[in-house]
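Discussion board: Methods & Data

I've been asked by a reviewer to show the raw model output for two of the constructs in my manuscript, not just the figures. I'm not sure how much to include, so I'm pasting the format here to get opinions. Each protein appears as its amino acid sequence followed by a line of discrete structure tokens. Is this the kind of thing reviewers expect to see in a supplement, or should I convert it first? Here is construct A:
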Amino acid sequence: PPTDQPRFYSYAPDNWYAKELFAITLVHTFRWYLMLLEVIPNSSNKTYPEQITMLPIGYEAPQAIEEVTKSILYYQKNGIFLNPIMYGRCRDITSDGLCVSVGHFNWEGLGISNCQGGYRDPIIGIAASRKISQ
């Protein structure tokens, strides 16, 4: 929205994610969620496979929709931007085989990014969500 409400930083109808399945078809599962507020400490500058091994036992990388919802709801309740500098890699993969990341959330909006799973970046860590058996 054109107000001070949370929004995507680079939203446009023709944006790269506008036709990606993770962005247009996935919905939340109705369940309880327990998610780390920030990315796993010291998980940046690592590949996605290396980051996965850093997840605590019982945790997994969340879907992008879960990370987006967490960030927006936390901001709505507390007025604090989560991961204002970092992106958290999620388990979603684009149609081109790239890893989806969510973060860099600040007054300009919430960022959605993608990159190779083998790519190392100082501002891409891994997000974490508790595995809940259904």
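Construct B, same format:
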Amino acid sequence: MIQNSKQHDIDPADLRRKEKAAFAQLVNQNSDHIYRLGLKMLGNPQDAEDILQETFIKAYHHIDGFEGRSKLSTWLYRIAVNEALMLLRKRKGSVTHLDAGIEMENGDVLPHQIIDWCCLPEKELLSSESRQKIQEAVQTLSDANRAAFLLRDVEGLSTRETADVLDISESAVKVRLMRARLQLREELTVFFANRIVKENP
């Protein structure tokens, strides 16, 4: 979880009073996670820094809008994701990114091919080359699916918390996760297929 059990919880009332110590604690406890999310959403350190800064500026100015129905960390994630998505929309203009694959009549997108990497050695999955390939594959996801995947599978938020951050239903989160996971498997098929061949000549 974001907040270390050894750290004291932040009182939202202190934040509403704009107490510097409370905001310093908020930044200290959450900045690493917000920056990491921004970096993985945008793929650029400078953009991630901008998202980090904008997130805490907006949190400071809009703390009265925090109603306490979710965790402070969830509220910050929501701000960060919205900032990242706005930046991505500015980059792409009116172009809509669709997941690679075959679009079904009900709107679902199925990948063209999937390979089973269940037997791939753990050392191969954890190699620097593999990690780089995985990071590149994450960038191919649509903005919406990438956000759901990063929040749920990378940051470790629950399905409920992810739904709160993205302001969608839990079932919508599950659909986006399914699409993201399927597309990632397809994106990585060729790369890991070559590894399987090397391990099993």
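Answer (T.O., handling editor elsewhere):
This is acceptable in a supplement if you add a one-line summary per construct. For B, something like: The mean pLDDT is 78.
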